[in-house]
Amino acid sequence: MTQLLTIAVDGPVGAGKSTVSDEVAARLGILHLDTGAMYRAAGLAVSRRKIGRDDEAAVTAAVAEADISVRYENGRQITLLDGEDVSTAIRTQEAGAMASAVSRFPGVRRQMVFLQQQMAKTTPMLLDGRDIGTVVLKDAPVKIYLTAAPEARAMRRLRQLEEKGEKADFAAILAEVNARDRQDMNREIDPLRQAEDAVLVDSSEMDFEQMVEAILRIVEEKTGVKARKGVRA
Ligand code: DC
Question: What is the reported pTM?
Fold first, then answer.
């Protein structure tokens, strides 16, 4: 039996995981599942039900009650909460902080991990997140740990916000990046860490294309699968 092409990409906030993963998956002709979007939808479900983010039992029950799912349109992920497309609503800084808060709870993680494993079971996919190589897809043939110095990550985020015409302050963004790292790396359940068999890619000095090529090289080395040049999924 040939193994399904499954790629696990983990790393801290702002390392470029999402945009780079999108491009890598497109060039390989496979789907990209942004698992952070699912935790963001879970966070939104909790906000909408006006539940305190520290109330573990209520948060876990709210996430169980919520219908979180993903579908693809022309290869692009659409994230749904109770049937509504929340792909844009989950992109705020606040939704990210809420996602990080609710993702501390084992009951929430179990639900998300189950959904992700179901999706990856039958479809060739690249999944990006915090625990893909360590928990969700322990047997993935390719595992990447994509990181960058906190300052480089904060600078990228600053540029993104500026491009969107939003006012941003470097020191505040750096503080937010560091706070998120602390929360994601120090939580008791499935903290962010590099899987032993993951390949480290430090993107501090890389531009977008260099990151994409570095990952595609690792995929080819590990599986023999080559990207289809210039072809998007
Ligand atoms: O990648 P992101 O910023 O969209 O993720 C939002 C939060 O969700 C992040 O701070 C931690 C959590 N998360 C997680 O715990 N496990 C994942 N696989 C993906 C995200």
Answer: 0.92
Mean pLDDT of the chain: 93
Residue ranges in 66-202 assigned as alpha helix (H): 93-102, 106-122, 150-163, 170-186
For the segment 146-166, what is each residue's pLDDT rounded down to a tens digit? Answer: 999 999 999 998 998 899 898
Residue 106 belongs to domain spanning:
6-219
Q: Give the count of domains, the chain.
A: 1
Cα(138)–Cα(132) distance, rounded to whole angstroms?
7
pLDDT at 2: 59
Residue of minimum CA distance from atom 9 in ligand 1:
100
Q: Which atom of ligand 1 is nearest to the CA of 40?
A: 6
CATH number at residue 107: 3.40.50.300
- Report the separation in Å between the CA atom of 96 and the middle of ligand 1, taken as the mean of its atom positions: 8
C-alpha 107 to ligand 1 mean position (Å): 15
